[in-house]
Amino acid sequence: MSIVNTNIDTKAPIRAEELIRGFDLYQEQSIKTIAYGDDMKLWYPALGLGEAGEVQNKVKKIFRDDGGVLTEKRRSDIVKEMGGNLWYLAALAHGMGMSLGEIALANIHELRGRVDRGTLQGDGDNR
Question: For 89-119, b where at least 16 C-beta lie within 10 A, e where not — what string?
Answer without folding.
Answer: bbbbbbbeeebbbebbbeeeeeebebbeeee
